[in-house]
Amino acid sequence: MDFEALLRQAELQASGGGGGSSTPNASTGGGGGGRSASCDRQAAPAAAAAAAAGTRLCEKLKAWAAEQRLVQAKANEPKSAAGVLHVLLIVIDNVPHESLWRHWAASATPAGHSARFYIHAKYPERVRSVWARKRLTARSFCPE
Fold first, then answer.
1. What angle do CA 118, 122, 123 make, to 5 degrees?
2. Read out DSSP for 51-92?
3. CB–CB of 13/57 below 8 Å?
4. Looking at the predicted structure, is the pLDDT value of residue 19 above 60?
5. Computed from CA positions of residues 19, 23, 29, 33, in that sequence, does the dihedral angle turn out positive or negative?
6. Contact 120, 137 (CB under 8 A)
7. What is the DSSP string of 12-58?
8. Which of 12, 105, 109, 142 could be disulfide-bonded to 18 (CB atoms 3.0-4.6 Å)?
9. Of all helices (H) and strands (E), which one includes residue 114?
10. Which residue has the higher pLDDT, 135 or 45?
11. pLDDT cut 90: percent of the chain above it
12. Could you read off the pLDDT of 22-73 as tens digits, one per residue?
């Protein structure tokens, strides 16, 4: 049985329909072979518990399906043969020789390699370069 069929079955159980069993009916006359009203009252909590269990199962299946889609999407991502070099520059308020770093990062790309820069500045508010500001770390411990 595929996932979609399991999900439909769980949704039917949660809504109280389908699933192969019907709600017991009151006695239908005749030789006393039917159920009494007290049996129906006793069966109602069991039916409610089954519906709640079906709802929980449905939610678990939906969460599992979402997780499986993420795993599959990650597996289908193209694998890069080249690596990424992460470079952390620790500076006071500007990047020394910034043009050299930028040129070096741009020249590494055609070979299939790439570099990603992170900049930790002692005084991040003093950084003037747009290129450097885009690469500032999210947290900086400023001196007192």
1. 105
2. HHHHHHHHHHHHHHHHHHHHHHHHHHSPPPSS-EEEEEEEES
3. yes
4. no
5. positive
6. yes
7. HHHHT--TT--PPPPP-SSSS-S--HHHHHHHHHHHHHHHHHHHHHH
8. 12
9. strand 114-121
10. 135
11. 17
12. 444 444 444 445 556 666 666 777 777 777 777 787 788 888 877 877 777 7
Structure tokens at 126: 């003093």
Which uninterrupted H or E stretch holds 106? helix 98-108
Query: CB neighbours (10 Å) of residue 119?
Result: 24
Note the pLDDT tens digit of each residue in 91-132.
998 999 999 988 888 776 666 677 889 999 988 889 999 999
Residue 126 burial (10 A CB sphere; 0-12, 13-18, 19+): exposed
